[in-house]
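For reproducibility, we list the full input for the zinc ion complex.
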Amino acid sequence: MVLRVDSDRMRADFEALAEIGGTPEGGVARTTFSDAHFEARAWFLERGRAAGLATRVDSAANHSVVLPARDPEARTLMLGSHLDSVRRGGRYDGALGVLCALEVLRSVQDAGLELPLALEAVDFTDEEGTLIGTLGSWALTGELSAEILAAPRGGRDLLLAELERVGLSEHDLLSARRDPASLAGFLELHIEQGPVLERADTAIGIVTGIIGSSSFLIVFEGDARHAGTTPMDARRDAALGAAAFVLGVRETVTRDFPGCVATVGDIAIEPGSFNVVPGRARLRMECRSLDAAELDALEHALAVRAKVAADQWGLEVDVQRAGRWDPARTDERVRAAFTDAAGALGLSTMELPSGAGHDAQALARVTPSGMVFVPSLGGVSHDPTEHTAWKDCVNGANVLLGATVVLARSLQNGSII
Ligand SMILES: [Zn+2]
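The corresponding predicted structure, in tokenized form, follows.
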């Protein structure tokens, strides 16, 4: 018999969770350590307790609901995602994965199944990067370092202020590492956040790997001069370097790195007025690849491109790295378990890479990990209109449940990567 989750229970919980930090536009605003974020995390633990499950909060504030195994020494199969959101987020990103993980634990318990591994549904801290990005999963896997803490994505001042406000220290974050030998694997359900599954009319995506990304702050320096009195041939216009670089990024990627993407997502021109030649341009650029060596080469090529643009317009340029997430391959056994579980439910599947970063990216470095995607309506995500049909959510939860039961048995004695 194929085990199934309780769709009504899960739906009621989904609706209740979406109310926490809910916005008039129908999305959620639950940035890391906001009141709504804390409320959602407390609600999650309470739902676990209400089901008679154990709970834990580690020193990186990762929140977990646990279904222990009979053997207290048993390793743990983790499932989960994140309850934080971007500023104007949707209801599904992260939250659906945490809820489905909780529902899997409840369904295993309800069925009276005794599995040889503990099951842990986890809500990782700051996946979306209000402070650092995948902070909780990096802390848990030991990837968080003093170097990362020194230059966090949201700025060092914000990180320190927020940690102090919520009673955490950098030492706490660095102490949250779990011994990989205690983990048997990690499974994450997530909305696709792209249009591939919907276009292919496919219920379940089996993620082959999670794309790596690097982000950079790039500053072109010229001279701010009077826009009326400075001849065109006597200018060092920083905006021209920025413009040449933006076009150059696109040319380099499309010509030399098919399959990769790169984006200049922000340009700030200084001093920023009608009548002053721009003296400085600050750019935020990121690039992504599924392969670590290719990502290295792409980073290098884009840095060279910045230098070429600067030379072309007589400028100085400074390129600083602001973050790097290595690409990660998912585990073959986990992919097979998802495929088999979907097959047993009569659901269509396809394999696809993840173009977005996820907590599974960190976990994949220390334990067999995999991800299952469910379709996103119109491919929309990080927006209040983000939507996944409820039947697709339930299908995903059932695949997660089926794979969990199989993997809890097969990974019991499996060796760590
Ligand atoms: Zn997410």
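The chain is about 35% helix and 25% strand. The radius of gyration is 23 Å. Both points were considered when choosing residues for closer inspection.
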